[in-house]
Amino acid sequence: MQVSQDEGTEEQALAHMERERVRCALVSLPPAQRQVIEFAYYGGLSCSAIARQLGEPLGTVTTRLRLKLLKLRKYLHSTE
Question: Which of 25-37 are b and which e, b meaning 16 or more Cβ less than 10 Å from the residue's Cβ?
Answer without folding.
Answer: bbeebeeebbbbb
